[in-house]
């Protein structure tokens, strides 16, 4: 770890550095550390630099589930293939850890002239960001050193061993407790500063992640000593329920089940949206064409460009009667995409573009349907589609909004739906989920799209459940999460915390729709006629290493610098 600090920019210089990507854009004052943090405005200026793309990533074009079984590109993912190698050089970046610790080492100067109420929002944000920074490290490396003060190049703490992963998880959850204590309870516009409810959302996410990890990785190389999964599940449920009970947010619905879910991801402004907890605003009048502040999601999603939905995800959508497709009279088969979409959970065709839906709305009001895109599949690079299923979740067909570089399509970061799903899953894992709990969590999501409620007493057996060794209720809660959050970047982390790569990844290949639907097809086809893009490159399926690939390797250069650092399993 010594190398982390040697290569870092001194904190005093960071005070003068302006990260151009944060949401609330103010330049950092060029001032020395001995006079900084004496006013709330100075605290805010420093914290603004953490409102960055690193902590609040852009909503990805075509979705962001490509490290999973939900989406596929034309290049197999290295983690899924099992072809990653040990990182020999470089570092585990503790730059942001040092930067946030600099704040905690110095912020108390403000106490001389100001009361807590005048600066507690920024103190709460600092706790929030320290938690967020450490959660990313936990997900990447598992156990990691907990550092709560700025270290110098000779600090003995540089040579500490990694703290146990559950100690890191406890630290993160504690930081979020402090964040929730100080942050505002106001909803705000969602595009400015974080609030208490966002801290509790992330706390439910962290606790659910660690609880699941400890439960499902038990007795493996990734198991945790003194595991306490139920403690984390309880914390996850409590944090999520606090947000639910506050009634600050609700599921977005205008009473149009055939379009509300799709429309949620295509809006141009979320200032008054009931579901959006935090979002990123792109406004060219404020950024002045800043090249580091660009967006082009709608423009890029006009064509599939090698990024498509898998049949594995498509098959997970229930039929309109609330039952799985296997043995269901409502399922019309695979011959055409239109047939597949018929009688399905409306989130199917609000996520996957079907030929009869609107693809483009021109400035003169004329429209074109997605049939025009499907007619051109695989005729050019922009139209390559390994699985055939084009994603439209996150896309707006209004061509006036499409801009190649400086597009003002907003980015979704946190939404209330995750709170509801975290609550339901945590309670299900505890074995305490009741119908009343489902009615206030799963039901609002299904009501939006006109789907039947999930009834504990009436779950239909699915012979193709992903997890047949688990209860029907757990399977259906996980299905609901997969469907509602599809392509939003949750799927890999869910697979990792459930230790589910053996069921979902190893030995499998992503499949697509019936190849007979498209005129030109450069991709292999399986014996049943479905697109099988990696049939030749991965004849045995994904080679994910179960004893290794759930975590990243520790760079060998770090281990050489610190004898107390131990490599992650399998590397």
Which features does this protein show?
571 residues; mainly alpha; three-stranded antiparallel beta sheet; disordered N terminus; two-stranded antiparallel ribbon
Q: What this model shows, in words?
A:
With 571 residues, the protein is mainly alpha-helical. It contains 23 helices and seven strands. Helices cover 36% and strands 4% of the residues. The strands form three sheets. Strands 1-3-6 form a three-stranded antiparallel beta sheet. The chain has a two-stranded antiparallel sheet with strand order 2-7. The radius of gyration is 24 Å and the shape is globular. The model is unreliable at 1-31 (pLDDT under 50).
Major pleated sheet: 3 strands, antiparallel
Q: β content, as a range?
A: under 5%
Low-confidence sequence ranges: 1-31
- Give the rounded overall mean pLDDT: 92
Strands ordered across the widest β-sheet: 1-3-6
The number of E-state strands comes to 7
